[in-house]
Amino acid sequence: WVTLARTYYVLRRFPEAVQAYEQLVKLVPDDANVLADYADALAMARGRRIAGEPLALVKRALALDPNQWKALAMAGTEAFDRKDYKTAVEYWERLRSAVPAESEIAKSIANSIGQARELGGLQPAPVAAAPQTQAAAAAAKSQATAPAASSQWS
Predict the structure, then answer these.
(1) Which residues, at least 6 apart from 55, have a Cβ–Cβ distance to it below 8 Å?
(2) 4-23 b/e (C-beta count within 10 Å ≥ 16 → b)
(3) Which pick of 22, 32, 92, 145 has the fewest CB atoms within 10 Å?
(4) 10-residue averages of pLDDT along the chain (154 residues)
């Protein structure tokens, strides 16, 4: 089911990807990566709308793994879309600490954080290099093999 779901996703056949993820989640209901990928496919099938069921899946993924990179990206984007810039920044700061500091995705996340801070009238963060966590290597590997880049959510 994993291969089928990801293949449908890559082919941009989102409704079919959703069906495959539905089956996969029945088999592995407590896998944060699967839940985040399912949320992603479902949101894409709904015209990139994260609110509703995709957000519920994101929250389940984050309950299982608070540093799941795709779930953090999607949660931040959903908060940003609601103009809850403070919450968006909080999610994206967590995401930034889970990726390699000098990576392209870290730069994209920093831009999103800056935009949210500006729109929300929030104070800029102190300038410091983002610390790498143990999740950094796993996040970088997941980004290379995941069905979608998190940049579409930020």
Answers:
(1) 39, 74, 75, 78
(2) ebbebbeeeebebbbbbbee
(3) 145
(4) 92 96 95 97 95 96 96 96 96 92 92 94 69 46 37 44
Q: Which pLDDT score is estimated for 21?
A: 96
Q: How far apart are CA 146 and CA 139, in angstroms?
A: 10
Q: Map tokens 């000098």 to a residue.
A: 102
Contacts of 94 (CB under 8 A, 6+ apart): 66, 67, 72
Residues 74, 39 contacting (CB under 8 angstroms)? yes
The dihedral built from the CA positions of residue 118, 123, 127 and 130, taken in this order, carries a sign that is: negative
Q: How far apart (Å, rounded) are the C-alpha atoms in residues 71 and 42?
A: 13
User: Rounded to an integer, what distance in angstroms lies between the CA atom of residue 149 and that of residue 128?
Assistant: 25
CB under 8 Å to 141, separation ≥6 — which residues?
none
Say what the pTM is. 0.78
